[in-house]
Amino acid sequence: MIVPQTRPPATEVFLAPLSAADGKLSIGPPVNVSNSPGYDNQPFFAPDGQRLFFTSARGEVSSKCGNPQTDVYGYDLATRTVARVTHTPDCEYSPTVTPDGRHLSVIRVEPDGTQRLWRFTIEGKNPTVVLEDVKPVGYHAWLDDRRLALFVLGQPATLQIADTTTGTAQVVARDIGQSIVKMPDGGVSFVQQAGERGERTLTITQVALDDRTPVLKPLTKAVTGATQAHLAWVPDGTLLMAHGGSLHAWRAGRSDWEVVADLAALGLHNVTRLAVSPGGDRIALVATPVSQFAGIFSTWPGLILSGSAS
After folding, report:
1. CA pair distance 176, 179, nearest whole angstrom
2. pTM of structure
3. 302's torsion region: left (phi>0), alpha (psi -120 to 50) or beta?
4. What is the dihedral of CA 245, 34, 142, 244, to 10 degrees?
5. Do residues 134 and 150 lie in contact, with contact meaning Cβ atoms separated by under 8 Å?
6. What angle do CA 143, 125, 281 make, to 5 degrees?
7. Per-residue pLDDT tens for 180-195?
8. How far apart are CA 249 and CA 238, in angstroms?
């Protein structure tokens, strides 16, 4: 997470059915599952697909880590309830279920502004630092049970492969975008940036480990006209990206992206981050709330908020 110097924009996390027929993806009606004024972002599905974790800033609570202060919340798909997961005075971002399925790794902004990778239990308890000396970390994805791909802030931002057993990290790419996502067939995708202004290019690239050696493989360019790419992978290997009011899809062997959904027609505007459930039957989308759609998509009937607000 790149911590903003001003209040982050108001965003909501929407959840929609995702299906495929005759090789075509389609999205059903989206529902606002975060349903809270302010910043709700960075969705991540639990391995069983029955819980959706996300970052949320609730209320007007400020702290040394940011204004407003953020915690991790979870939406239960079965009960349609939202509950607070972490309860700290610091700021937690980018909740990610660890490979063991029993913990959440987060980017935690500490009182002095330090951004490091931390780990909580899946219930939001017992926080511990994962990488003591690697900072400032912005985003992350697990490659295996001990190694991660990290977006580390700097001029430029770098992609680093970290080992939790040694606490060290190796720079493998420079000038990268914010999207770092685990791929269904192994490895992690990231966005390699190059050029300046009108000549700037975004290349979706895979990093995988050959024994202990990181191997980079360019996959495709981002959707034409995009200045930033937030990505998600479907279990069948389809890559998704939102841009220009539409959801685009790409598969290996294709040269171009295909439009698979009109997001604006679904009431979703300025869509950025995406997440797909492990079963490929749900998609979470982060969008800017728009008042004229509030009566249609603002809340799921029976949505209940439990836990205290931060």
Report:
1. 9
2. 0.91
3. left
4. 10
5. yes
6. 50
7. 999 999 999 999 999 8
8. 6
For residue 242 the two structure tokens come to: 């939102």
The tokens for 288 are 């800017």
Measuring CA to CA, how many Å separate 149 from each of 21, 166, 227? 33, 15, 22
Beta bridge partners of residue 75, listed in sequence order: 52, 82
**Structure-token match 């959706």, residue found:** 52
Q: How many Å apart are CA 126 and CA 98, to the nearest integer? A: 15
What does 33-93 look like in DSSP terms, one character per residue?
SS--SS-EEEEEE-TTSSEEEEEE--TT--BTTBSS--EEEEEETTTTEEEE----SSEEE
Q: Rounded CA gap, 148 and 59, in Å?
A: 33
Which of 98, 91, 38, 42 lies closest to 63, judged by CA? 91
Render pLDDT for 35-86 as a digit per residue (tens, 0 to 9).
999 999 999 999 999 999 999 998 776 677 877 899 999 999 999 999 999 9
Maximum distance among all alpha carbons in the chain?
53
